[in-house]
């Protein structure tokens, strides 16, 4: 007999809101990571283009919305990507990061503006994130146990919380955790039901936290997978 505990209806892009976290001071990098260009494209623009191609709605949580809002309109990016973002930038909503207390609190602030069942949470510094991979992850959501609060990649140090899917209903638990002083995704997720995403390459999950990380990306040549078409 089939389990009644399983969701069998495919999850569509209309049921997922993307939240991109672009707050923080980028202390380890020494400059704003969101503005750093890889192959001529700012990191935030790259991540936004993938998020917009997979989700019907994109939120960017930041304390620098005026600076980022004009990013895709004025930066010297590839023509195809520039045209895509110029066409869709008005669909993006900027959520003010009022507290600057790290990614977990930023996520809470973004969740208050979510009206869909699922959230795709992304850091702004994922140079090799690609649409095909994220779409393959989306296809994994349709058979999760009902109690699952997140579906995330797992790395050597634990869950990769800033590149995966969460049920929007996690807001209550996450808000309680943050109000009690919690700031660690790993500590919060340790108390929740999380399922591992499959098909997660280290390239896709690689992020730019330091100048050394950025040099690695630049030395590696072109992205492993191309950006979404315009």
Distance from N terminus to C terminus (CA atoms, Å) equals: 46 Å
> What's the shape?
globular
Relevant CATH superfamily: Spore Coat Polysaccharide Biosynthesis Protein SpsA, Chain A
The CATH class name reads Alpha Beta
Helix content: 25-40%
Structural class: alpha/beta
- The order of strands across the largest sheet is 5-4-1-6-10-7-11
Order of helices and strands: EEEHEHHHEHEHEEEEHHEHH
Q: Which second-level CATH architecture applies?
A: Alpha-Beta Complex
Would you write up a description of this structure?
- This protein is of the alpha/beta class.
- It has one domain: Spore Coat Polysaccharide Biosynthesis Protein SpsA, Chain A.
- It has helices at residues 43-54, 65-69, 71-74, 79-88, 103-111, 131-138, 171-179, 185-189, 202-205, 211-219, and strands spanning 16-21, 37-38, 41-42, 57-62, 92-96, 118-123, 150-152, 154-155, 158-159, 163-167, 194-196.
- The strands form 3 sheets. A 7-stranded mixed sheet has the order 5-4-1-6-10-7-11, sandwiched between helices. A two-stranded antiparallel sheet has the order 2-3. A two-stranded antiparallel ribbon has the order 8-9.
- Helix 5 packs across helix 7.
- The radius of gyration is 17 Å and the shape is globular.
């Amino acid at each position: 007999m089939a389990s009644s505990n399983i969701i069998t209806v495919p999850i569509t892009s209309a049921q997922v809101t993307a939240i991109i976290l672009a707050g923080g001071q980028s202390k380890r990098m020494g400059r704003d990571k969101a503005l750093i260009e890889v192959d001529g494209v700012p990191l935030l623009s790259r991540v936004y283009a993938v998020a917009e191609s997979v989700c019907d709605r994109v939120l960017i949580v930041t304390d620098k919305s005026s600076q980022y809002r004009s990013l895709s309109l004025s930066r010297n990016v590839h023509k195809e990507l520039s045209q895509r973002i110029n066409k869709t930038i008005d669909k993006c909503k900027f959520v003010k990061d009022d507290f600057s207390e790290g990614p977990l609190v930023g996520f809470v602030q973004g969740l208050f503006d979510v009206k869909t069942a699922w959230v795709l949470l992304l850091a702004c510094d994922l140079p090799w994130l690609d649409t095909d991979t994220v779409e393959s992850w989306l296809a994994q959501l349709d058979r999760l146990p009902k109690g699952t609060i997140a579906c995330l990649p797992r790395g050597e140090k634990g869950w990769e919380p800033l590149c995966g899917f969460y049920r929007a209903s996690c807001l209550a638990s996450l808000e309680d955790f943050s109000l009690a002083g919690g700031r660690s995704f790993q500590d919060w997720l340790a108390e929740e039901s999380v399922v591992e995403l499959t098909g997660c390459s280290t390239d896709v999950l690689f992020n730019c936290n330091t100048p050394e990380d950025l040099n690695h990306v630049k030395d590696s040549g072109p992205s492993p997978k191309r950006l979404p078409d315009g």
